[in-house]
Amino acid sequence: MDVTEGSTQPDAISPDLIECADGLARPPWAAANRMLQEYYDTEWGMPIRDEQGVYERLCLEAFQSGLSWALVLSKRDAFRHAFARFDPEKVANFCDQDIERLLENPKIIRNRAKIEAAIANAKATLSMREEGGLAALVWSFQPDSTPRPFTLEDIPKQTAESVALSKALKKRGCKFVGPVTAFALMEAIGMVDTHLVGSHRRGSSGVWA
């Protein structure tokens, strides 16, 4: 099924949306609790174009790999505190002692490979400033059209653009940035709009008017 923007789809609400107590329709993951509802309503899919913001999302998507986003989101404040508000200049200078400190922090996800990836990604972020910066690089892979999913099955896990973005990030030293993680990043920062047809959030980013 062609699910790109502009394709023919039923003028109806996706059957995969759940009507919440406030009368708004959300996908199952966003209807699970108030924390996820607020994140879905105010953050997910809204444009992020600054270096720190993209770097933070890149790191959090990496920590989410193999786990639930709800878990990562519930620990986001702790992550921000532990990782110096995701200031790439500060994280790039983390040493072995910092890694051990993070591994002993029960408030975050204590995975050595992911922690080391956050540090590697900070160093890569600094090096990318010479070629326009992390945000510019990531957004250069914005597709010409966005999916228009009517069901959850219509939402791709990865795309040609996310595969290319993954390769570009890895080439520059980034870790934990496979095509699936890259696509999740693209969704989170508004590069694509995968809100289901009928969601009150679809088209709200202003990127895909």
TrEMBL record:
Protein's recorded name: 3-methyladenine DNA glycosylase
Biological process, per Gene Ontology: base-excision repair
Protein origin, superkingdom: Bacteria
GO terms for MF: DNA-3-methyladenine glycosylase activity; metal ion binding
Gene3D superfamilies xref list: Hypothetical protein, domain 2
Keyword terms, alphabetized: Metal-binding, Zinc
Organism annotation: Corynebacterium phocae
Disulfide bond in keyword set: no
Binding site residues for Zn(2+): 195
Matches recorded under PANTHER family: DNA-3-METHYLADENINE GLYCOSYLASE 1, DNA-3-METHYLADENINE GLYCOSYLASE I
Presence of the UniProt keyword Cytoplasm in the record: no
